[in-house]
Amino acid sequence: MLTAAEDPTRKEFAQSASATLAALTPLDRDHAILAFNRRVLDWAYRPEIPLIERLRYLCIVSSNLDEFFEVRVAPHLIAADAGDRKGNYTVESFDALATASHGLVAQQYALYNDELMPAFAAHGIRMISHGERNPAQRKWVHEYFEREVRPLLIPVGLDPAHPFPQVANKSLNFIVRLAGKDAFGRDNPIAIVKIPRVLPRVVRMPAKISGGQNLCMPISSIVRAHLASLFPGREMGDFSQFRVTRHSDLAVDEEDVKNLRTALRQGLQHRHFGQAVRLEVSASCAESLAGFLMAQFNLPAQALYRVHGPVNLARLTQFIDLIDAPALLFPAYQPSYPVTLSPVQPIFEQLQAGDVLIHQPFESFDGVIAFLREAVYDPAVLAIKQTIYRTGTDSALMDLLREAVRRGKEVTVVVELKARFDEEANINWAEMLESIGAQVVYGVVGLKTHAKMMLITRREGNKLRRYGHLATGNYNPRTARLYTDISHLTADPLLTADMEAVFVHMAGQNKVPKLHRMWLAPFDLHKNTMAQIEALGAAAAAGKPTRLVAKMNALTDEALIGALVRAGQKGVKIDLIVRSACTLPAQVPGLTDNIRVRSIIGRFLEHSRVFYYRIGEDESLYLSSADWMNRNMMRRIEIAWPVTDPVLRQRIIDECLVAYLYDGRDAWELEANGAYRRVDRDPRGTEGHGAQDALMGRYASRGLSRAAARD
């Protein structure tokens, strides 16, 4: 099997990219990720956004930062500890990353304390501290602590027989300094109190003692008020809540293990205790306690984060769940049933007439579930094949696949066990499906299966016909309500034949045949994408009008960046809509004048990958599961496929590209200095609008019109 490392064109691409980028300084990927989170945090600052949603964006940033530290920071920290001054990871890179991270965290807590909490208080919604509680409230909290909390706490006094305990990743803990002697007359002044994960992180006070307000308390406040009672006979001195973040990227040598599923399940047991990379403590934490913790976790001073509030802001989503205030939320949005899909006509019949596109979440993911459900209950359907990357722990699609097996259909599922932070859910699904007789495949050794495909084989008369679903996003009904993605339903014989070939390749790991329409990583997706960009450059150099518009989540592959820069220098007009990290420096005079980079941050997470190429009147458009990153091109099974129907292609151009290029409210533009500037007006001079709001309005009206016509 030809792997990415053996691709004979890869070296050539890398060399040409290096030559092209020699005059440019690529933007740093890790700082680009932090810059993306600052753009997300901007939504928490915006006064026109409903208050609860502003807090939700603050929580999203905290969750993103947790993952950033878990995945991206360890190499910088290791280099700093070793005193490295050369390479991508150095003392300087760690210092710069720490400085940027501290600045972002300080912004979060300032916003939380100075704006969001006072605004909630104005609505009678408060996080009430121990000092603010009246006697009746303190009595209730005490009873709650004795009944629900104390039985689960085991304070650990540190001594030679009780060394510093294992502290799990992102768990909430207290450190306490004690005076006096223990029961055996020994001087052991430090104790650790773990707060079990089973306890809610936010508790709501009953209405009868809240004085007509919505009063809540973080669990840390409840425990803090009763810490002294956990150490009878000792005098409590300094104390602080703390949380440690650990490196959590699972590393399994697939070539060395006999059973990947077993190896991953064992690895999950150790994930919570990886290398420490960040320590969060209360702002008031005594230097002696902070120093003690830093020494225990072997962390430098830059890894200490003193925070003015709860150390786990991401857990404030529980606070959001306890607030009953619809006026402080986004107006409810009900996606329309896919407007080009009839709910009363069999989907197979509709696909025989032509392809169907579903633009999520403006249109409902129910259309995809309906497609699978029809296949499961249709006796003419013989086989179902599907990839599983992220489906969540509760999935209607998994239930349907189980029913398909029960009905005697051949069900083949390619499960990606290494989907980061979804490993356990995917292992559980794999074991369940295997146990009932489905054929479960774990993809190709060394490559993540990131392609999203479902293939149905149906007997029609004396022949077999295939029907397919391809998508830019995951088979996850929950995220399908929150992420923008494109689902493509098709009966195109060439495209479905390509899907069949890819499934056979993943199961048998045999050589992939020449595909008709689909591009497949790590084989030809990168090479064909490069060729498309270079063809645009050649056409522009010959005086032909050219255009490239690409929408993706991240752009970091140096070879593709080099090709874009060269094409732009030859005259190709390039617009890149990149939600998150982009390391291509745009609008640099004399180098990237023809390249514009936009980032759209909206109510929904931008997730669709759309790539448009035009030379003269000849245009092509591809959808893809892959971002333009090295890992997607070289270390994953990814797909890109063309949309050939001119009506559907124009719809995608209008909704996924043009609408976002003219977004004058939620867009940010990358400037020559590497900073992003928020766009506050439509480029045509009219009042700024948001592309997502426009699409929500468009599909709401289409859904209403369709319902009226049906009635």
Q: Could you walk me through the main structural features you see in this protein, from its secondary elements to its overall organization?
A:
It is a single chain. The protein is of the alpha/beta class. Strands 14, 18, 19, 20, 21, 23, 24, 25, 26 and 27 form a ten-stranded mixed sheet that branches. Strands 10, 11, 12, 13, 15, 16, 17 and 22 form an eight-stranded mixed sheet that branches. Strand 8 (276-282), helix 9 and strand 9 form a beta-alpha-beta unit. Helix 2 (29-45) packs parallel to helix 5 (91-122), helix 3 (51-72) packs antiparallel against helix 5 (91-122) and helix 12 packs parallel to helix 13. The protein is globular and about 85 Å long. Residues 1-6 and 252-261 have low confidence and may be disordered.
Q: How do you describe this structure in short?
A:
This protein has 711 residues and is α/β, with parallel strands linked by helices.
Helix segment count?
20
Q: Which ranges are low-confidence, i.e. pLDDT below 50, for 5 or more consecutive residues?
A: 1-6, 252-261
Structural class: alpha/beta
Largest sheet: 10 strands, mixed
- Bulk shape: globular
Q: Rounded to an integer, what's the Rg over CA atoms?
A: 28 Å
**Helicity, as a percent range:** 25-40%
Termini distance?
A: 57 Å
- Average pLDDT, to the nearest integer? 89
- In terms of DSSP E residues, the strand content is 15-25%
Number of strands: 27
Task: Give a topology summary.
Elements: H1 10-21, H2 29-45, H3 51-72, H4 74-82, H5 91-122, E1 125-127, H6 135-149, E2 156-157, E3 172-179, E4 190-195, E5 202-204, E6 214-218, H7 219-225, E7 235-246, H8 260-271, E8 276-282, H9 287-297, E9 304-307, H10 317-322, H11 347-353, E10 356-360, H12 366-377, E11 381-388, H13 396-406, E12 410-415, H14 423-435, E13 439-441, E14 448-449, E15 453-460, E16 463-471, E17 483-490, H15 493-508, E18 519-521, H16 525-541, E19 546-552, H17 558-569, E20 573-578, E21 595-600, E22 605-606, E23 610-615, E24 618-624, H18 630-634, E25 636-642, H19 646-661, E26 667-670, E27 676-678, H20 691-710
Parallel strand pairs: 1-6, 8-9, 11-12, 12-13, 14-25, 17-22, 19-20, 20-21
Antiparallel strand pairs: 2-4, 3-4, 3-7, 5-6, 7-8, 10-17, 11-15, 15-16, 16-17, 18-25, 19-23, 21-26, 23-24, 24-25, 26-27
Helix pairs in contact: 1-17, 2-3, 2-5, 3-5, 4-5, 12-13, 16-17
